[in-house]
Amino acid sequence: MAISLPPALLHRIAQAIRTPTALAFARAARRPRAHQERLLLDLLKTNASTVFGEQHDFASIEDFDTFRRRVPLMDPETLQTWVKRLQSGERNLISIEP
Questions:
Q1: Residues of the chain whose pLDDT is less than 50?
Q2: Quick one: pLDDT at residue 26?
């Protein structure tokens, strides 16, 4: 048997479920550069032990500007080299994720 709840109650329940996500988004929106930099540093820390991370010393990067100076933009040909290595079965090249 289905229980019918009043729309106002359903609305309040939905708001309560969304509140943590909405608050996290609001905090990030107030300081987007700081939030993005924190996400970048988390990714760098996670992938510091990869071949690419070791080549660019991810472990010592502490801010976006250092990342920008140290990690070059890659053209499609350069990226293709990494992709071919991944396709041949090498792991832990550019990401610790498979």
A1: none
A2: 83
